[in-house]
Amino acid sequence: MAGLNSIVEGHKKNPFKRSRWNIGLWILVVTYLVYSIGSLGLNAERFLSGIGHASILLDRMFPPNFERWELLLSGLVESLEIAMISSVSGIFLSLFIGILAARNLMPPWVSVPIRGFVALCRSFHPVIIAILFVKSVGFGALAGILTLIIASIGFIAKLFAEAIEEISFKQVEAIRATGANFSSVVIYAVMPQVFSRFIGFATYQFDSNLRNSTMVGIVGAGGLGGTLFSAFQRFDYDFVAAILITIISLILVWEFLSTLVRRVF
Amino acid sequence: MATIDYHWQRFSFGKKLARFSVYLFFITGFLFSIRSVEVIPEFLYDAPEQIMDLLSRMWPIDYAFYPLTVHEAIIETLNIATLGTLVTLIFAIPLALMNASNVVSSPLIHWISRFFLVSSRSVNSLVWALLFVAMFGPGMLAGVLAIAFRSIGFVGKLLGEALEEVNMGSVEALRATGAPWGAVMLKGYCPQVMPAFFSIVLFRWDINVRESAVLGLVGAGGIGVVLNDSMNLFQWQEVAMSLLAIFTVVVLAEILVINIRNRLI
User: Which residue of B34, B39, B226 to mutate against A (max A Cβ within 10 Å)?
Assistant: First the structure.
């Protein structure tokens, strides 16, 4: 009887009861919000004047001004060149760096330093790397290219190494048993298992390099970003709108092309 | 005796042709870009020397600079990243619901939400920051809004995909009891997407910590302002201190995210 009663007691409990952790989390979030919004220095007046500025800004942005299309086109071509060179060389380099960083193919004294290098490439935002390269190799496309190569290595080499670490080792053992050397093992046992994923990472990285090549110009590393930034500083907002529309349509075209490329592989 | 005249091929002729044309496209694009990009070769040759010169100016790191301005700026950077990620959710959750085909079935609404998600993703966070600095003036508010608007596309797209993978059985069961729309959302969809939701938000927060470190270059608050100031004054030892602070925060954020993720999932 006692057991029955305790079961009935158990049923009275709310099945969707919030845990203590959950409540604590919400309290934490709310206190954080109060604190950080306080530090924002936001008041109604500033917000309303901001909305006013926004309407003026939008008014001046439309209609977009394509009159200086030659400038726009030269910036666009430079951005495309930066994206192309840095993607092809960055992806090619990370093919090797990824293999060197895979812990199941390489001894620790090779993979650990390489992994450290890759992590270092990844931990800074491309803009900061671009600043350092602009200071060291001067203004222009070269700084942008070097920046995006570093960014590509940081992203693809890491994911590629992780993909290699997940492969099935049976093929590797089979190829090794035939007496094949290391390069044959990589070409015939490792690559077929990871190549389609590598292509996936590579198309994603090309996409992200394309976006970033239109941005590194803001710090002087060549491409459409420089044009954009100077248009901003001269308050040519209608030209800014034209550049933004160009960038968005460029990325939409690439998204369409990248689905085609992915279907091929 | 008739021999079987059959040579095994992994890919059909059409597939080979398609792959070959993709390779050809990228290699010609690469070579063409290399030829036409404006790079001054002398700059490339003395790049290692210049980089070593820059590093020697950065050493030793000026640790005394940290308590003066860097500490406050780093806290502000973290606030921008966190607040920006929270503000994103206000816009991203409705857009994700509109984008998921098993929540809303109207194609018109899908296209509307997709338009907002794609335009949010195509514009870089630095460009968003430029726009918001023009509206609200320099400061943290512009940074928060830039981070928030850049993240909408990312969070909305991934959350929409997570919603589409929900097992519809429990949703249908709830609907069969006559539960109103809100209850179906809260008890049908919500528990199933919660793990994906937290991992998407944490991932985006990690990216936002990196991105908010550079927003200051265009005046949107955070450590970037300090970095830009000391760079304009050629105080390279202070620059090194700021870079070290950014590096530490980024690494700590990544470790934190990995730990929380392992505990949640």
Answer: B39
Contact: B127, A244; criterion CB under 8 Å: yes
A58 in reach of chain B (CB within 8 A): no
Q: Is residue B45 part of a domain?
A: no
Residue B204 within a domain: yes
Q: Confirm whether the ipTM is greater than 0.85.
A: no
Residue B61 pLDDT grade (very low, low, confident, very high; cuts 50, 70, 90): confident
Q: Output the average pLDDT for chain A.
A: 83
Number of domains in chain B: 1
Note the pTM of the prediction, 2 decimals: 0.80
* Angle (deg, nearest 10), helices A108-123 and B236-264: 110
DSSP-derived secondary structure for B61-112: P-TTHIIIIIHHHHHHHHHHHHHHHHHHHHHHHHHHHHH-TTT---HHHHHH
Does residue B147 or residue B42 have the better pLDDT?
A: B147
The residue ranking higher by pLDDT, A193 or A68, is: A193
Domain limits for position B121: 58-264
Q: Specify burial of residue B7 (Cβ count, 10 A radius: 0-12, 13-18, 19+).
A: exposed
Of residues A32, A37, A141, nearest to B39 (C-beta): A141
Q: Which of B96, B106, B145, B97 is nearest to B123 (CA)?
A: B145
CB contacts < 8 A (A, B): 144
Report pLDDT for A1.
Answer: 46
The single-letter DSSP state of residue A218 is G
Token representation of residue B26:
């990228």
Is B112 domain-assigned?
A: yes
B8 falls within a domain = no
Residue A42, Cβ density class (10 Å: 0-12 exposed, 13-18 middle, ≥19 buried): middle
> What residue ranges define each of the domains in chain A, with the CATH number in brackets?
2-61 (no CATH), 69-264 (1.10.3720.10)
